[in-house]
Amino acid sequence: MYATGAFKNPFADFDFSKIAGEFKMPSMNIESMVETGRKNFAVMTAVNTSAVESMKAIAQRQGDMVRAAMEDFSKHGSEVLAAATVEEKAAKQIDFVKKSYEAAMANTKELADLYSKGQTEALSALSARVSELTEEVKAAIAKK
After folding, report:
1. Alpha helices, DSSP H only, in the chain?
2. Lower Cβ count inside 10 Å, N or C end of the chain?
3. What digits encode the pLDDT tens for the residues 8-34?
């Protein structure tokens, strides 16, 4: 090649169109792909909407719990100040601590249940779509 001083491109005489004509691309059903994307998007939208609603419900409930705790604390302060003896004040303090602990445990369980419910709903919708998508893929493969 170089002995004669001229460079000859080895691909100059190569017919790429011949190779490209023999290369077979698998056929794709664009309509099916768009429909699958639409379904996936719809499920993700529903899951996100559910998650937002769940978080709103949890935030609302937490706000209610804090408000009730503050009201109880204010009421308790008035009761302690109204108590006549030190023993009475101590008894009211102990009762308040017990009541507060029980309320905190009940609130924690309620919030955990709300979180669990929200996650269960979201995962259920996603699982259903994954199952449906799996069947769609199996059906598409079976057609070929």
Report:
1. 16-22, 30-82, 86-143
2. C
3. 777 777 777 777 667 766 666 788 888
Regarding pTM above 0.85, the answer is: no
Residue 51 makes CB contacts below 8 A (sequence gap 6+) with 118, 122
| Cβ–Cβ < 8 Å for 111, 61 | yes
Cα–Cα distance measured from residue 110 to residue 100, given in angstroms and rounded to the nearest whole number: 15
| Tokens 């009762």 belong to residue | 95
- Residues contacting residue 136 through CB under 8 Å, at least 6 positions apart: 36
Chain centroid to CA 133: 19
Token pair 């955990």: residue: 112
